[in-house]
Every structure is written in structure tokens, then in C-alpha cells.
Amino acid sequence: MSTTAALIALACGAIGTYFARSGLILLLADRALPASFERALQNVGPAVLAALTINLAVGSDGLGGVELAEVAALVVAGAVAIWRKNLMWTFVAGMATLWILSAVT
Questions:
Q1: Nearest CA to 75 among 51, 98, 44?
Q2: Do residues 77 and 57 make contact, with C-beta atoms less than 8 angstroms apart?
Q3: Span between the terminal Cα atoms of the chain, in Å
Q4: Which residues lie closer than 8 Å to 72 by C-beta, 6 or more apart?
Q5: pLDDT tens digits for 49-105?
């Protein structure tokens, strides 16, 4: 593939992605969303964070690569999430646990 063809493919992909993402935003910019839809959107952030966390913890080789500090951080973060019901407190508690246990071991 030549450089010109690669640049054209990159530009087409970028423009297509921009219009695909901005289309919904532009169509709904002056409209109010239903309350049920807004409630459902509140769960997107925690769901994405949970999916990324589990994917990074488990990895492609299964649970063989998970260390004790990572498991402890996930358990602490889960407990704080249930207790505080706050995404920021969950993140802070999990990361603090991971950093402290990683520094100790």
C-alpha cells in the first residue's frame, strides 16, 4: 500500500468516525432525553470501568498472571463501591490499595 493510499484510508476512516459519533449528538442537541434513558446512561461509566478492570486483571492468559496486590485492590474497590456507591471513592480506594501493596511486596 502506498503512502497516498494509506493517508486516504486514514482520512476516510477519521471522517466516517467523526460523522458517526457526531450525528447522534447533533440530532439530539435540542431535545430532552427520556428519564429512563438518562438513568440508563448513568450506568455506562461504571460498566466500562468494570469491563476494563476485569479485562486487564484476567488478561489473555487467564487468571495465571494476576498478582495478590491486584486481587486485593479489586476486592477493596468492590467493597468501597458497595459501601459508598461512588465511582470516585471506588477508584481512589482501589488504586491506593494497589499502590501500597505493590510498594510493600
A1: 98
A2: no
A3: 49
A4: 97, 98, 101
A5: 888 877 776 766 665 566 788 889 989 999 999 999 898 999 999 999 999 999 997
